[in-house]
Design goal:
three-stranded mixed beta sheet, mainly alpha, 11% strand, single chain, three-stranded antiparallel beta sheet
Length: 408
Amino acid sequence: MAILHPTRTLPALLPRYVSRFACIGSACEDTCCSGWTVSLDKKTFNAYRQSKHPELSKTFETSLRRQRSQGSDRNYGKIDLHGEGGSCPMMQGGLCGVQAHMNESHLSNTCFSYPRISANFGGQVQQALQLSCPEAARQALLAPDAFDFLEASITVRPDTVQRVDAEGARGQQLMHDVRIFCLQLMRTEGLELWQRLALLGVFCEQLAATRSADVQALLDSFARLVEDGAVLDALRDLRPNHPAQAMIFATLWSSKESPGRSERQREVIDMVARNLGADAESGVAHIDELVARYTTGVQRLPLALEAAPHLLEHYVLNEMFMHLFPFDQANPYDCYLQLVSRFGLLRMMLAAQCAPEGPLPDAAALVKTVQVFCRRFRHDVNFATRVNHALKNSGWHSLDKLYGFLRH
């Protein structure tokens, strides 16, 4: 059968965990072949429509739909999901019918790439994995060396590789320098994660107000401030604001449930709501009880994280590396607000696991919560908008107030 989507093999920069990942297929606890809309690029959609394959043509005929509202060549059509769990109709006996009866090149761009995200950042190709995949989450969050970086060959479809460039060689180098500085800042030894995030916020706020010609001077001066500890002096007396953390992140949490949730997803979502005191019928928690339960959980969370000591740091590093931080929003500070909001919401879910009396969650349970969080929120195109509204409407988008969010 002819090749539909050609591929290229390229040298790329990877966190070590990416090189260890392999799809576990039918053994996956939360398969990507159900519960999600399967987007189809235009080339794949037309190939399926025109297919006369005896095993698949009837399924293609009844299950394909055009995306006429806000459609594009990349998001040209979709596959209607079937059944209560929202399974892809291409699945046959636990295997993908397209892959089994046609070939891998006939998979949609979405199905071929997931959970991999590839980008060309200033001439350097990179790849990371979305942690909504259970196996990717395990590989990224648990291994101490998961974020040692290496160069390796990857196979990609060229039209799925995001590209970010700056004008001129100097601009490209400055982008790389800023990005490397942010990642190194988040790995600074001797600082707690919340302190690193606080320093990152100071840097991003200053970067957003700095002209391109002055960026190198900012990098040099900020590095000196971190080395001599001057910036940290202002953080030592900060106290956590647990009521604000609980209420703001509960606002972000409370959104209408989507259909097609897997049993695994419902289990985690129900656990969070129950442990934060939500009423079984209304789903609403009394503010005082919400704050009390969250405070108990977030205070117990460090003990639970002893079973997975790299989990939160690696989550943050993956977000930053995968989404080209701080260049994935209108300005660096907006990037920072989005990162902090996702971090805070995830921490709320992890704290909910720790709120009840009794044994603390083990490493597997913590990873499971991160994976479900990523599946529920990281693929929600409206989440960034909700974050901006929630923080700005409440007045908590300024850096001095965000510090109260960060400290646990």
